[in-house]
Amino acid sequence: MLLVVNFPSWLKPEIFPGLPIRWYGLMYLVAFGIAWLLYRAQVRERNFPINDEELSGLFFWGILSLVAGARIFATLVYDTNPMYRREPWLIFWPFQNGQFTGLLGMSYHGGVIGGILAIIGYSARHRFDYREIGDMFAASIPLGYTFGRLGNFINAELYGRITAGPLGMIFPGAQLSMREQWVRETAEKMGYNTEMTYVNLPRHPSQLYEALFEGVILWLIIWFIRNKKPFKGFLLGIYLIGYGFFRFVIEYFREPDAGLGYRITLVKTNIPPALFSSPLNFTTGQIFCFAMIVLGIIWLIIASRLPDRKPVIVYPSKEATASEEVRRRHNRNRRKKQQKP
């Protein structure tokens, strides 16, 4: 039998047993908090002309739109339950059978759409440059996103495909019935007892892969080039391309969403989605990630040609602006005196 890592038995979804307070929800709060701190740090280092009230408003509407987009997209694309079409108000109803469950199911790509709409709308209303607002978000979000995926890991959900590699992990709730022929054959190859009724085979901890690459590594890349961007909107394009690329690759290690499987199958096989079949079979997530890459490239081309595209890395401080105004006023008065006969 393979040497695998068992999911930590002490790690539970609830922070306090018996109370409806879960680590997943706390991870979201941590994610938003980190994004806020990184955004505010950029505002201060650049002297960006936005006050605390406007910054709070930007984050409030940004988070609200992100959650709304993520939830709506999840029910339209991933959750095929017709209940949400009959009673759409249940999309945001956090109770199931009289118990508090929170919002079950969130779509990252829907959250991106909602967040971008919020950036454009808030920037237009308050006359900010949406390209700069978007760039600062691109340098803030990935590190916060890391904690969202850690929340998935704590919930032992969104685990990866079956693997015989050294990174395999046994996740609770991922049991398979030995009645399936492919399960028996796979278990036998891995050295498991095929006389069992159910077997729990090792999986890729794809949540941790995503937390590392789509979170930490992508954030480091964008954070270190944030003051070297060639034009406004550059970081936003890099974020779309970078996230799309990392997620597209990691989807090969992650088991497709239940009931959806592959949306595009270029190589017909009888291999179940829990096992890797072919790099030419694509999941829903990969389709959206490919669209992100394409949109990111198109946006970089457009942003590089827009007027007023030169980046303003550091805005002059209020003190510097006041001094400059005094200097200009002094020069105007001096010129007027020189022009007198």
Topology record:
Layout: E1 5-6, H1 23-46, H2 52-78, H3 83-86, E2 95-96, E3 99-100, H4 108-126, H5 130-138, H6 141-154, E4 169-170, E5 176-177, H7 181-189, E6 198-199, H8 206-225, H9 234-250, E7 262-265, E8 281-283, H10 284-303, H11 318-339
Parallel strand pairs: 1-4
Antiparallel strand pairs: 2-3, 5-6, 7-8
Structure write-up:
This protein is mostly helical and 341 residues long. It is 54% helix and 6% strand. A two-stranded parallel sheet has the order 1-4. Strands 2-3 form a two-stranded antiparallel ribbon. A two-stranded antiparallel sheet has the order 5-6. Helix 2 packs antiparallel against helix 4 (108-126), helix 5 (130-138) runs parallel beside helix 9 (234-250) and helix 9 (234-250) packs antiparallel against helix 10. The N and C termini lie far apart (102 Å). The model is unreliable at 320-328 (pLDDT under 50).
Taking the sheet with the most strands, its summary is: 2 strands, parallel
**How would the global form be characterised?**
globular
The percent range for helix content is 40-55%
Measured by DSSP, the beta-strand proportion falls in: 5-15%
Rg calc: 25 Å
Number of helices: 11
Mean pLDDT: 87
Distance between the termini: 102 Å
Structural class based on helices, strands and sheet pairing: mainly alpha
β-strand number: 8
Strand numbers in spatial order across the main sheet: 1-4
Q: Note the run of SSEs as H and E.
A: EHHHEEHHHEEHEHHEEHH
Uncertain parts = 320-328
